[in-house]
Every structure is written in structure tokens, then in C-alpha cells.
Amino acid sequence: MSGQIFISYRREDSSASAARLFDILRNHLLRIKFLMDEKEERLDAERREERAPRVLEKAAKEEPWQNSLGMKFVPVPGTQVLFNIWDTRLEDFHAFVESAGYDATEGMYSIGKDGWKRRGATWKEPGFKQDPTNPVVGVSWDDVKAFCEWLTKRERGSGALPESMHYRLPTDTEWSVAVGLDSEPGNTPQEKSSKINLYPWGTKWPPPSGSGNYCGEEARIGNEPEGWPVIQGYNDGCPRASPVGSFAANKNGLYNMGGNVWQWCEDWYNSENKYRVLRGASWSHGYPDFLLAFFSRLRHARSSQRCHRLSLLLWLGSLCWQAPFKPIAQNFLLSISSRRIEAISGHIFVSNSRTIGFKSCDLSFHVSDLNGAKEGCPQRG
Q1: For the purposes of burial, counting CB atoms within 10 Å of the CB of 157, is it exposed (0-12), middle (13-18) or buried (19 or more)?
Q2: Would the pTM of this model clear 0.85, i.e. be above it?
Q3: Average pLDDT, whole number, for the chain?
Q4: What is the DSSP secondary-structure string of 233-267?
Q5: Neighbouring-strand partners of residue 268
Q6: Is the pLDDT of residue 274 over 50?
């Protein structure tokens, strides 16, 4: 009968004293329960932390790790992160906006016959048809950071994500490794941009059929500026953004690392710390230089050609660990005078007619006089 206490006492004992004893036991049992709950929470946190390395070890290109939104992540050789295999989808961002009450609807640029302008478009209605598996467009770098923070907090809270892991954008260097670049001259994204004549599909121009969603002849549908440049002889069948995974993945199992929508990176463009980095080009670009794997743009606003790809960071460096919970004294004795106490519980036992013992891994206290009794302080060992 765990958690219940039964007390009997001699007729000459006052009911007030018995009630006082009961209050003492009850208060400390509540304290013990709190400490035991605290211990269980810490042990649970430690178990979640132990799962972190296994997440990285088990995830593979052939068997991605999947989060609560159905986003799939794979390791990329040469990095310490798991990459989302495709851009963040409309349905993923919608879950964030609905849950967090986040507003990402102002200041978006969209295409029209008069060029790129703010004309009231939003990520929900960017100016072209989209379905839930389309990459969400019209999101700024700040919008993406808010999404990452929300998703990290949500999954840590549910136990799906260990404390040592969090969602963020890939860095410019990580993105380069993921697209297949072995080395890059320069220190900043600005210095590295457009230095090597290499595309996500290779070195030839125009892109081979099926290379990705670029600005081919299909992009001319009547609501773009007159004379809008397209890739002559190329047609991918998608005039605007296409659902994620519509084209073949690269060698790392990642989709749309070239074309479809620009992808935000974590970095600043240069030392001025004024603009963020975009990589990968989009459905709206047909200039050869823009499609280079090395090319990076500097932007900060919302646009119908910009999305993001998440990376899941497992920090493998030095961790600041909180000391594990250490059990304290194994029992307590409550000493009383001239009274008989009987206690029945999963933890409480009767030592003799003058003392009561309590088995616990979490609390120790001592009371020497019930009349105006003092409650002993918990002793941690």
C-alpha cells in the first residue's frame, strides 16, 4: 500500500501529537516524491542524451532519420551534421505558424510583368500554384531561425530530440560539401563565390535533361517580364517551384541542391555582417553564372524563390554536463517518546515501539521530540 500511512497511539497520547506526527511524515513524503520525480527527470534526460550518438550512427542515405514532421535527415561525409534530404516543405512551415502563431506575411517579393516587386504575395499565396509538399517560399532568414528554434524546443520537449542536438541552417562550408565541392579558395562566402566553373550536374552547359528545376523554356507562362532570359533548349516541365524530390538526388542523397528555390545558409556574406548567404539558384534563373555550385547571393528579404534546408547538429565537441543526481542518505529515523507508531507503506517500516524508519534513496531527517517537534533538514550525500 505504497504512499499510505496508518498511525495508532495509546489512549493517553494526545490526538494533537499524533496529528503532528502525521503532518511531519506527510510533508516529508511529499518532499521525497518531488526529489524522486526530479531524479527520474534527470535520468530520462541522460537517457535522451545517450541516444544522440546513436541517431547519427544509424542514419544513412539508404535509411534516413525522420523527425516528428516527417522531415528526413541523412549524414553527409565531411560534416558533423545531418542534412534534411529536401527543402523545408509548405506543410512543415504551416505546422510551425499554426503552433507558434508566427507571422511571416509581410514584405514578400513576387514576379510579375513589371519584375520583382512587393505586391501582397505571401508564403501561402506566392503567385503560383503549390501543394503541401512544395518547398515553402517567401521566408526570410529570420523566419527560418524562428522555425528552427520552435522545432528544436518542440522535439526536445517531447523527448524526440536529445538536448545535445538542435536544428539550424547549414553553414556555407557545409552546404558546399553537401553539393559535392571538395575545396574552395577564399575565406568568406563572398571570396569563394563563382571561383570554379562547376555546376551541380558537372561542367557542361546547358544542363542535361532532368538536371533540376531551372529557368528553362517552360518558365515563360505570361506573367513574367517581356524578354525574360531562359535556358534555351532546356525544359524541365515546372514553370515555377516544384514539389520536393521531383528530380534525382545527388550522391549524398540530397534533392534539389541545384534549382527549384534558393537555400538560406547560416553565414554572413562577408565581414560587414549585413547580408546573409543564399545557395543553389532557383526556378527563376537561367544565367550560367547563377547556376554554378560555387555561386552565392547576398540577401535578407522574403521572396517567392527562396526557401531553406535544415541541418540537424549533433555537437561532438566538449559538452558541459550537469553533475548526475546522486542518491542521498538511505533512511531516516523518527524518534518519539511514550507512544506506539505503526506505519504500513511500500517504504515505511516500524523499527520498534519508539522509532519509525523510512527507507528512501532521497531523504534523511531526524525528529527527537514530537511535542513541538522539529523536522530535520534533508541531508544530501
Answers
A1: exposed
A2: no
A3: 74
A4: T---S-SS---TT-S---TTS-S-SSSSSEEEEEE
A5: 276
A6: yes
Read off the DSSP letter of residue 68: T
Distances in Å between the Cα of 162 and the Cα atoms of 47, 60, 91, 107, 312 are 9, 19, 24, 36, 11
Element (H, E) at 334: strand 331-335
Asked if omega into 208 is within 30° of 0 (cis), the reply is no
pLDDT at 65 over 60: yes
Q: Round to whole Å and give the CA distance between 188 and 192.
A: 6
Q: Give pLDDT, residue 40.
A: 66
- Structural domains in the chain? 1-63+331-381 (no CATH), 81-314 (3.90.1580.10)
- Name the grid cell of 193: 563565390
Residues 82, 56: contact at Cβ < 8 Å?
yes
| Sign of torsion over alpha carbons 113, 119, 120, 121 | positive
Query: Helix %, strand %, coil % for the chain, to 5?
Result: 25, 20, 60
Confidence of residue 1 (pLDDT cuts 50, 70, 90): very low
Angle ∠(332,333,334) on CA atoms, nearest 5? 125
Q: Is the dihedral of CA 230, 231, 234, 236 positive or negative?
A: negative
- Is the predicted pLDDT of residue 158 greater than 50, yes or no? yes
What 8-state DSSP symbol labels residue 288? G
